Amino acid sequence: MLSEIVNEEYKKQIIFLLNNNWTGRTDYYFPAQTSINLEKSHFTKLKDYNYIYAKKNTTETKRGILFTFIDSRAEDVSIVILKDFTMYNVYINCYDEYFYGSIFDISFTEENITICDVFMSGGNKVNTYSYLDRMSEAEYFVNNTVESEPKLNTMKYFHSISEISDQNFEIEELFMIPNNLPITTGINYSCFKWKPADKLTFNLLFEDDEFGDVDVYTTNFKKLKHFAKIRNNTPEGMEYIKTIRSLENYKSGCIIEVNVDTCNDKINIIKVDDDKTIPTTIRAIEKILYIKKENITLEDIINLKK
What we know:
With 306 residues, the protein is an alpha+beta fold.
């Protein structure tokens, strides 16, 4: 029952309706909440306030919104909206009341929809509820669904970080969600995510030039800014260019995920990231490098609650 929506006018109508319910904005805007990377300056919040912990597979899943509503033909509609504005019709057979307007923050694959948070349920805004109450709304929704395609489930969460085990840091991140603060749109500076410093990556745009070199770009205030030039007249440059151009799905102008080895001051090329449309901002890159130097460990976080 999964089918992509390709009609651009229809997609604009969906975004308008979604944001009319959530943010009040009318432009093409993805209204999900964004967590920030944990820094040592955030330790006071984690120590003193009530946080809920969860691990998410952020590598093999895509961030999205599940939006249910009644369309102009009085038909029940369920739409998954991904961060890049790819949209899918999905099949959900549930109580009619959920089509009065429901908005869920999800992790998405073609086989599963995992609800991670809730803004609206059955036409009622629940964004100011505690996180545990919002997740109760999500569980009610899943339990009141007769069938769906993809399958529906809710994210597993924990009251204590010590309850989390077997985290696969190659594909997963640890999220720390404030229980008593509302879900917001945009960056939530009290909602944190963490993974080992050596796993923190960012994205750059790589573009071939007419001389066989490769120009690398970041962004600043939504404008591309030159980050580096990889020249083909040195052994090191040729090796980089060979690695870049051998990547699966590489083409000039694509976004590539990279990592920085702070010990050797070397950029490691990882993969082409087709899900990204713009590179990481220069300020975000600076922040990632700062966090790498702080090198917060899982034990550091666990010890905060002792």
